[in-house]
Amino acid sequence: MTWLSQNLHIVGDLLVDHLLLAIPPILLALLLSVPLGRLAAGSPRLRTPLLTGTGLLYAIPSLAMFIIIPAITGFSLRSPATMITALTVYGCALLVRGAADAFASVPGHVRLAAAATGHSRWAMFWKVELPLAGPVLLSSLRVVTVSTVSLVTVGAVIGISSLGTLFTDGFQRGIEASILTGIVLTVAVAFALDGLCVLAGRLTMPWLRAVRA
Amino acid sequence: MNLFVEAIAWLLDPANWTGAGNLGQRILEHLGFSAAVVLTAAVIGIPAGIWIGHTGRGRALVIAVSSGARALPTLGLLTIFGLALGIGLEAPFLALLVLALPPVLAGAYAGVESVDRPVIGAARAVGMTEWQIVQAVELPLAAPVIIGGLRSAALQVISTATLAAYVANTGIGRPFFEGVKTQQYDMMLGASLLVGLLALVVDLGFQLAQSAAARRAEPHRARSGAKAHRAPQGAQERIHA
Predict the structure, then answer these.
(1) Which residue in A has a C-alpha nearest to residue B241's C-alpha?
(2) Which of A11, A103, B54, B187 could pair covalently with A41 via S-S, beta carbons 3.0-4.6 A apart?
(3) Given an 8 Å threshold on Cβ–Cβ distance, is A174 in contact with B83?
């Protein structure tokens, strides 16, 4: 506790760094995966290459990804851009599959009915398919959110500042309190962002509660 | 792209494949250590998961453990165990075990739970004992999902075993961290490509085992492949370190 009170400002700065690294990739992955997932669900010919491709990305270890991405993009190794790109790729690896499953779960007769009542393709996507795919999509998004927050810490071993820095610093200097603070805060941030996802789901899909009640 | 050429040159350099601590030895260390972790997780997780799936007791616990564990940062566990236990293989072993157990447990539980209830009822009706039901009915039918859990665990462990070199000198993480320390990018990238390749090969092996188990469990559905045998979304997936 004395360690924490003496280092509160450092911990605060690292917490901000952590959030700035974790939140953009979660949003980017969502933004990219919804259209890709819709494509995969709508076309059997695209489904296999899209899902196998993103599935393969999932098998690449994150430490490797943190090195491979700067080698491809030319970003510097320790830049936030490297981290955000790597985490977006991972997020997509899980979310594209989740989104494809979500859109595939929309019943065909509902789609036919929407077409019969004169919905354009665009209106059908926004008003019929996306709302119905929402709950499944949300559950994948929650997995990605929690995993991303936890994964940000790995960047600390190559010098990207985040709550993970509390682990590498604490280990090198033999301060257990530093590591423990890092673990507790990482888990807390993960649960807080997960809670925000649930809240956002309730606000954008109010019918879910009505169905359950 | 030049860096990739250098990394591959580093990987192919015969000097790195001979002498003490050569790459072949590092690969064996990496695979051996990962296998030990996954086997331990299997010995603990599979019987526990089957028991929970069979009796229906402790469901909430599995769900809480598998979703809660996803938030635990492995690097944090590695370093705290490293400080507590000192330099050696014990700390990374424990940290990786914490990583591997939830997907194995969730796979075994979800697999047994997904077996059609009427099938189990029928087995009971023809007079099979509970033990016979577990080993002759539930186990073969659940095998594809159980293997899926092991696959997910193995992938995470192989990936994260690279990180183990941060607190213990073992595996492909060694050249990786040496590269980080000395700013040798070809070495870092070469080691990274090697781990990635290893993960892909092992994942492919598990995929084949999973399809074989699926063919055995449900021969008439064999053409649909392992697709039908994924545990419920989120039960075991986690972006691995």
Answers:
(1) A62
(2) A103
(3) yes
